[in-house]
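Problem 3 from the worked examples.
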Amino acid sequence: QVQLVESGGGLVQAGGSLRLSCAASGSIFSINAMGWYRRAPGKQRELVAAITRGGNTNYADSVKGRFTISRDNAKNTVYLQMNSLKPDDTAVYYCNADQVVLTTLYHYWGQGTQVTVSS
């Protein structure tokens, strides 16, 4: 089992910045990709950004150039730096980790952290 604990959400004005953190603990071996998803009110959960253990990244088109995902493998922590925030970024942000054990892929989720961007 892997536990993910997020922090760093909050209320910010449009144009502002926030930094989310997600620390993994437990059986953290073989964790490959980690990432951030979000769910806005009335919408489906969507991928925001992901990063592999080797540092390859993937971003949603809506956040490219504004958000940066990074990872500290030694601390088993993934970060999401969010700049130039917009009201449309308001959502609950969830940390995700993918782990392969033998041939089985496991998905783990954090409890979510609220990000609210006021106009």
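Problem 4, a separate protein:
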Amino acid sequence: QVQLAESGGGLVQAGDSLRLSCAASGGTFSYDAAGWFRQAPGKEREFVTTIRWSDGIAYPADAVKGRFVISRDNVQNTVSLQMNSLKPEDTAVYYCAAGRYSNRPGDYNSWGQGTQVTVSS
């Protein structure tokens, strides 16, 4: 099972952009997909977007459509999340995950430790 490690979180202002990265290590990335989820205090973990590893087909949640873009590098075994036009409601801990091509957390087998994104108004 590969290990995932996120980086790139931080404190930004509304309207700013931020790029998160997730590096996979410890083995070959043999999963169907890599995804990003987020969890705000007091809320359940929420699907953000996912990308199918074989062909790069992705789909985002409605809340981030048109603002967030996921990409993957299947040579470097990394997946990135470009977040534009950030809003205060995007504030959360963001998690990278690997598993099936799905919007359900239960379909993902491997998770990173998370990185905090805070958007001030």
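Solution to problem 4. The CA atoms of residues 53 and 74 lie 7 Å apart. The chain has no helices and eleven strands.
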